[in-house]
Structures are given as C-alpha cells and as structure tokens.
Amino acid sequence: MQGTDLKRLNDADQLIREIAAEFGLEFMPQEFDVVPAQKMLEIMAYRLPVNFSHWSFGRDYEIERTKFEHGYAVPYEVVFNSDPCRAYLIDTNPFPIQVLVMAHVYAHNDFMKNSRHFRNSRRDMITSAAAAAERFRAYEEDYGIDAVERLIDAGMAIQWNIDPTEHLHRQNEASVRDRLYGWDRQLPSRGPYNDVLPERPKATREEKRALQKRTPPEPTPDLLGYIIGHSPRPLAEWEKDVLSVIKNQAQYFLPYRQTKIMNEGWATYWHEQIVQRLFQEKFLSAEEHGYFNLYNARVKAHNPRSLNPYLLGHAIFKDVERRWNLGRFGPEYEETTDARTREEWDTGLGKGREKLFEVRRTHMDWFFVDEFLTREVVQDLDLYLYLEHEHPSYYEVVVEETGWKRVKQILVHSLMNSGIPRILITDGNYRNSLQLYMEHAYEGLPLHEEYARKTLELVHHLWDRPIHLQTREPVNDRTRDKLYTADESGVYVRRGGNS
C-alpha cells in the first residue's frame, strides 16, 4: 500500500474513532495491521495470528485459499477480542473499502467490550496462543507428532462440549456437594420471610453416603473439563495442558458463535452510519462513496443457499430502532388488529437508539431472533426456506416454506445452544467401574450417527474405559431410545422402544 494511502488511512482512523464515540460507541484501544492475502488466510484458518499446529487448520487454509482465488469470498478483515483490540486488514482492499472495514471493526470492538457474553473472555488470547504453540512443538519433539496430534484430534472433537456459564459458578466438586447435600446444616436466618424458603429434604445416612460419592455431583455439560480432571487413564501433565489450551480457546471463541448474527449486524449498522458521515464531511469523494455502496450491497446480499448474518442482523437492529422510536411494541400495540391503525401507530417515544444499546449488551442470537424477528423483516428479506432441486442439466432453487412463524421457529431452533448438541455427563463412575455415562438432552434434533461414532472413539481414547451415550432418534411420528457404547472393541449401538 502506498504511503499516501497509509496517511489517509490514519486520518480515516482518527475521524472514525471520533464519529463512533459521538454516536455513543465505547471501545477498547484499537490497533490495525494491513497484511497480504496469504497472511490473512492463515489467520482465518488457524483462528489466531499464531496457533498450535493441526491438520484441520491446514485443511481450512486450503478451503479459504480456494474460495479467495476463485472470487467466492474476500476476507476483508479479522478482528480479535483483545485489549488493545487487534484487527487485520487485507492489503487488496481499495481505500474506500478499507475505510468501511475500519468503521466495521470499531463497531465490533464496541460490541465485544460491552456485550455481557464477551465480558469474561481472556483478552490476552493472542499472546497465550503463541506461547501454547511453542509448548506444543516441544511436546511433539518429546512425545512424538502422532501422539500429540491424536490428543488434539480428541480434544477438538469435543471442544464445544463445555459449560458456557462456567464463569458464573466456578465451583469444585466439594463445594457443589456441600450445596446439594448439606442437609443437616442450619441455614442462617434471612429475615421475616425465611419461612417461605423450601425445606431441605431429609435423607438417610446411606442415601447421603451414596450421594456424596456421586461424580459429577450433578449433571454437567463440561465434557472436556470433566475428562481433564477425572480421566482414569490417567492423563499426563502435558496432555492436560494440551486439552486445557483447546478448552480455553473454545471458551474464547464461544461468544463469537453465540452472537454471530448480532455482532455482524451491529457492525454493519454502524459502519453505514459512520461512512455516511465521512461522505457528508467530504472525507470520501462521490466516486469513493459509490464504491462503498457497491461493496456494502455485496456484504448484505441475499443468498437462498445460506443465511447472511450481516443482512439479517442489520435488518433486525434497524427494525428494533424503528419500532422503539414509534412505540410499536407492547401489549396495546400487539393486540391491535386494525391494519391502518398499526400502520399509522406513532407514540413519539424516540427510544430506538437507547433500545439498540440495551439489546447489544444483553442478548445473544438465540434470544435476539426469538424476541425481535418480525413478520415484516421476514417478508422484506424474503427469509423463507429454500430447497435445491437437482435436474439433469441444472439446479433449481425453489421456496419450500413461506409461513413467517414457521420460518422463525426453525431459525430459532437452529440457534439453540449455538447449534451445539447438549451432552450431559450424568455418571463418571457408572456401574462402579469408572465407566462414563452421558445423556443427550434431545430437543428434536437427532445426533448424526457417523459423527457420533467417530467422536465417541476419540472420547474413549481420552477416558480409556467404556463410555455410554444415551440419546433419542425419530421414528415416523415418534422417538425411540438409542444407546451408543464405546470400548476397546469399537462403538456399537442399541435401540430401544418407541415413545
């Protein structure tokens, strides 16, 4: 990039920062790096600027490189939740698009600083990952590449099977047992309403003894963490380190998964506001603003084959702003059935921007879409269900479902638990022989059998004792039990009766 462009980018950075603050955005100090395409693709594939080595990252790099070289996807930027916030810009972006991206990054920065879902993230992850990569290389030299890679395979297979709310209740098993089973302890007086508190159940000595030996003391979704702490294998310290790094990185990236639609929609909303101001203040020429409009339209393009989080998130935020400015929410408005009255409804409330900042702070995609996706947004975006039909010489994409409530229901269901099957460990000493028993909290979406089998093989590698996974599968209009068991002979399945 030419020196003149770099100077203009520095000027743009200053202006964007001032305009964003004027709009009410609050952000951490921001740093930008302009990098070549290859480096950008490496960062995307390896998740971080420097990370440990694994074959899946190489695979992802080839995928990203192929898409980039064929013009299918251009990685405009990558931004990390760090302090200072670090963003990487690809050096092939034209100047007005670089300005768009920088404004987009400042909005991401604001979102990550203020969303409660990012609040407990490690903001030193970039340096932490670089240090871990050095340790992993030493482990490969000491214990062999195959052993390290097999361990990483197993850890990454269950990297998202962690407790997303762990930061809210960090407890060891002793404190959990005390909370659950300390029946005989006298509760301190809590005032005149103490009598409405539930009484602790009475238990026999034998029941107490059995309950106090239970592990985990209550079902936990933290499969990876439980294995690190309880595997009967047992795990060496270097193995625990590898698995802990994988878990820490999953915890770091989980908020990105939980807020993808919101985060991208928020950034798109604000980069439009900021660039419009830059154009009004003559920082961008009419030609550059036209270039921005072209690329911005591409960012928000509708694609029937996949959901565009930039488009959907932006549309919902705009709709929320409009409705809270006009007062179009609440029981009185919702119960109004007259079309003309609804169309003319305007209480002059003017709370749109205030509501946007509140939602940004509190919500994740699952609840954001459930609460704020309206019929108008679905219809405006043609947000219907499409099916692709294959013909001898062409593919045809047709609308399969147009009912907005049904479309919303399916979309919300797909966002449940960030698309991660909820697997609970219910017994780490099943049959009193250190077998691991897990239950899938079935919510209408069955497990993919091939993936389940291969994942259980890797979990067995970590546990080294028989493991069991209880789930359900649909059969016609009913469901039936399904039990996976993995041991040294492989993985086998037993199916139960209908219900």
Describe it.
With 499 residues, the protein is of the alpha+beta class. Among the domains are: 3-118 and 259-299, no CATH class; 309-416, no CATH class; 420-498, no CATH class. The chain is built from 20 helices and 10 strands. The strands form 3 sheets. The protein has a 5-stranded mixed β-sheet with strand order 6-7-8-9-10. Strands 1-3-2 form a 3-stranded mixed β-sheet. The protein has a two-stranded antiparallel sheet with strand order 4-5. Helix 1 (3-23) packs parallel to helix 4 and helix 11 (260-280) packs antiparallel against helix 12. The longest helix has 22 residues, at 237-258. The chain starts with a helix and ends with a strand. The model has no long low-confidence stretch (mean pLDDT 90).
Explain briefly what this protein structure is.
52% of the residues lie in helices and 14% in strands.
Order of helices and strands: HEHHEEHHHHHHHHHHHHHHHEEHEEHEEE
Radius of gyration: 26 Å
Q: What characterizes the major β-sheet?
A: 5 strands, mixed
Low-confidence stretches: none
Q: Strand tally, please?
A: 10
Please state the overall shape, judged from the principal axes of the Cα atoms.
globular
Number of helices: 20
Distance between the termini: 65 Å
Task: Describe the secondary structure blueprint for this structure.
Blueprint: H1 3-23, E1 30-35, H2 37-46, H3 55-69, E2 77-80, E3 85-90, H4 95-114, H5 125-143, H6 145-157, H7 173-181, H8 205-213, H9 223-230, H10 237-258, H11 260-280, H12 286-299, H13 309-326, H14 331-334, H15 339-344, H16 352-362, H17 365-372, H18 375-380, E4 385-390, E5 395-401, H19 404-415, E6 423-430, E7 435-440, H20 449-463, E8 467-475, E9 478-487, E10 490-498
